[in-house]
Specification:
With 476 residues, this protein is mainly alpha-helical. It is built from 22 helices and no strands. The chain is 78% helix and 0% strand. The structure holds phenylalanine (PHE).
Length: 476
């Protein structure tokens, strides 16, 4: 068996982890979620979730990964706790399902890059979204996006993932900063900033019960936690750098990118007539932004730059999602990496056909992972490190770190108490939300809730999807 690969440098690991963290969640969801939930008031809650719950959880995954030096399932066994292996297994499964719909959205981004070059979405952005978001075009674009993801992962940890993210992350930052600076010159800049960030504590107070779990869910998702991704990436460390220092760098860069995205998006929207319904559903941000690009003088170039940023963000995340099941299957069953990447990627492509047929299925996949599997995985991880493997975890966190023993001790008690309580509350509210959505028919048929004008409710594709999903649910 070939020796396990390791990152070529500390920066290589940080780039890869930032690549996983910075994704559609930062650029596509975060700004709209912030604006809709009270601006700066939401930001306070979000930052608390990221730094107080997300950051310690990231360290949980890091210590398991670095100490285990194995894929996320085998790592538990290597540590001597085989009975906990299913915890890593949940992450493997979540990565698998998430990539299936993440790749569909990645495919939309590809269609918008093409549309920026040809100007295809300039006339009627709503119709363009309808045409590319579900059905044959969506399936084709999903296939292309998946093929690129497979290509990178097949090359391996250093030649594939590390090399790709070392190129994509700087490109994302340079382009985003450029766009944000350019956006300051727009007429709508001031209105955009104030829509984005002006604190609205009454919205926060009124919807506190739904905003807190939303912020927490977003914090886990944006930091790629609960998917075993950070376990897998830390398993390729092979070095004793400071985990708290690396983790802080990753969390801070990820947060800056998310904040920056809002400084790009809102001036653009307000220069051309406001945010409208953006943020109201999976496609509204695409429609609103494409409309704005169509109306701006240099819209084609700006649109192209924006969607390239989105593509790099999506790809640097999708490769981490594919890496998790690929590492598991290739190490566990001894298959070659590239063969496994192609086979696994193909299966994931097939699982992604359903969300490519209708965005309501995309919401279904998203909710099951986001509101259910993810909190369960984080809860188990916290209990594992907090109560089962606590001595090993503290020892591992201390290695190479200058943060000292008191930091490690506080971290352990935090992971034992605060993190599980926060996650249980999130889980409870998430499951309740899934149940409500299910009752309202969000996932099956009932298009009104998602904004029916955007979707072809009667197309053959969607009907087929409906029938298929019913069968699947029935089988379960
Ligand atoms: N962090 C990514 C984003 O914000 C999503 C992601 C989640 C990627 C889990 C990998 C693993 O879009």
């Amino acid at each position: 068996m070939a020796e396990r690969e390791t990152w070529t440098s500390r920066a290589g690991f940080i780039f890869a982890a930032v690549g996983s963290a910075v994704g559609l969640g930062n650029i596509w969801s975060f700004p709209f979620q912030t604006a809709a939930n009270g601006g700066a008031a939401f930001l306070v809650v979000y930052l608390a979730a990221v730094f107080l719950i997300g950051f310690p959880t990231m360290l949980i995954e890091f210590v398991i990964g670095r100490r285990g030096e194995q894929n996320p399932v085998a790592a538990f066994k290597k540590l001597g706790y085989e009975q906990w292996s299913f915890t890593g297994g949940i992450g493997v499964f979540s990565s698998f399902v998430t990539l299936a719909f993440y790749s569909v959205v990645g495919g939309w981004v590809l269609s918008y890059i093409v549309g920026s070059v040809t100007g295809a979405y300039f006339g009627d952005p709503g119709a363009y979204f309808g045409a590319v978001s579900a059905g044959p075009t969506a399936i084709a674009a999903h296939a292309v996006f998946m093929a690129i993801t497979i290509g990178i992962v097949a090359f391996g940890v250093t030649d594939g993932i590390e090399r790709a993210t070392k190129f994509m992350i700087p490109a994302i930052i340079v382009l985003l900063v450029g766009l944000a600076v350019w956006a300051t010159t727009l007429d709508g800049a001031a209105a955009g900033y104030s829509y984005y960030l002006s604190p609205d504590f009454s919205t926060l107070a009124k919807n506190f019960g739904s905003i807190v779990p939303a912020a927490m869910g977003q914090a886990f998702f944006t930091l790629s936690l609960g998917f075993s991704v950070m376990i897998a990436y830390a398993s390729y460390l092979g070095r004793d750098d400071s985990l708290p220092a690396d983790g802080s760098a990753i969390v801070v860069i990820n947060t800056i990118v998310a904040l920056l995205a809002g400084f790009v998006v809102f001036p653009i929207l307000f220069a051309t007539g406001g945010a409208g319904g953006a943020g109201g559903g999976p496609g509204t941000a695409f429609v609103a932004l494409a409309g704005a690009f169509g109306a701006l003088p240099a819209g084609q170039i700006i649109g192209l730059a924006f969607f390239v940023v989105l593509l790099f963000a999506a790809l640097s995340s999708s490769i981490s999602l594919l890496e998790v099941p690929v590492a598991y299957v290739s190490e566990n069953y001894g298959y070659g990496r590239s063969t496994t990447a192609v086979a696994m990627g193909t299966v994931i492509f097939v699982v992604g056909l359903l969300p490519a047929l209708g965005t309501n299925y995309l919401t279904l996949y998203n909710d099951v992972v986001f509101k259910f599997l993810l909190p369960i995985a984080v809860l188990l991880l916290a209990l594992f490190v907090g109560w089962a493997a606590d001595r090993e975890a503290m020892d591992e966190l201390g290695r190479g770190s200058s943060f000292g023993e008191s930091f490690t001790t506080v971290w352990l008690w935090w992971v034992r108490t605060v993190v599980p309580i926060a996650v249980v509350v999130t889980l409870y509210l998430g499951v309740k939300a899934i149940y409500t959505s299910f009752q309202k028919g969000v996932y099956f048929r009932n298009r009104e809730i998602l904004g029916d004008t955007l979707f072809f409710s009667t197309s053959w594709w969607e009907n087929m999807g409906d029938r298929y999903s019913k069968t699947v649910i029935f089988v379960f």
